[in-house]
Amino acid sequence: YASNISGAIMDIPAIVKKARSIKPDIYITVDAVQHAPHAVMDLSELDIDGINFAPYKFFGVRGFGVAWLSDRLSVLPHARLTQKPENFWGLGSDAPAQYAMISSILDYVCSFADNKNGTRREQFVEGMTKLELQERALLHYMLEGTANVPGLRHIEGVTVYNDNPDLTRRDLILAIGFDNLTPTQATAEYVKRGIVVFDRVDTSLYSVRMLHSFGLKGIVRVSPLHCHNLDEVETYLKVTQELAKL
């Protein structure tokens, strides 16, 4: 649904419509791990067969994933207990704490809603919409800067890769590079200054396919943890200026 390198949001409804115009019975699954924490997704608007997300991207526990399957996808061959129905996917015992974790995440998002008497769904949509707008505002400041410090687009020696001026088409995820530092060197320098970012390089089996599709060998990946304020954005930009001059 969104790139974990560039933050670009895919137009899933349009992609699905085009795919089904070519092969109406195609099975379509969507990886929403990166996008789910940043915006509302409405399954009723997506003509798909499967979608998944990972709670750890919301600061939930690791080792736990959530997926929805269509009726026809749910009965495709898969590992299951032979005495269970064809559409049964459970193996082993559930861990109640993981469901409590999901509930806590939803409680947090719903707490931002002004409509305290609305349904849980209505409160979640309002809360996620506010979070999305907050992240978009921070993304704008990261790219354009403030009165106190220039943004990434304007710092000499820094390149913003796959930069889309339409901020409604991207999540708060940035891929940048330095003229004077490798991604790994830059990541280490950020950490020395109390800022956590990640290098994505083509020597990693997890990154090589995506990077090469963009024509890149490596980038510094910058994303919210898990939503910052303007003061922290300015601190980040000042450190980035410093690194660009090393």
Tell me what the structure shows:
The structure is a single chain. The protein is α+β, with helices and mostly antiparallel strands. It has seven helices and seven strands; from the N terminus they run H-E-E-E-H-H-H-E-E-H-E-H-E-H. The mean pLDDT is 94.
List keywords for this structure.
four-stranded antiparallel beta sheet, globular, Aspartate Aminotransferase, domain 1, 2 domains, alpha+beta, 246 residues, three-stranded mixed beta sheet
Task: Please give a quick description of this structure.
The protein is α+β, with helices and mostly antiparallel strands and 246 residues long. It is 35% helix and 11% strand.
Low-confidence stretches: none
- Beta-strand level of the residues, as a percent range? 5-15%
What global shape is seen?
globular
Number of strands: 7
Could you tell me the mean pLDDT? 94
Number of structural units classed as domains: 2
Largest sheet: 4 strands, antiparallel
Order of helices and strands: HEEEHHHEEHEHEH
* Cα-based radius of gyration, to the nearest Å: 20 Å
Number of helix segments?
Answer: 7
- The end-to-end span amounts to 37 Å
Helical content, roughly?
A: 25-40%
User: Taking strands numbered 1, 2, ... along the chain, how are they ordered across the largest sheet?
Assistant: 4-5-7-6
Q: What oligomeric state do the depicted chains represent? A: single chain
- Structural classification: alpha+beta
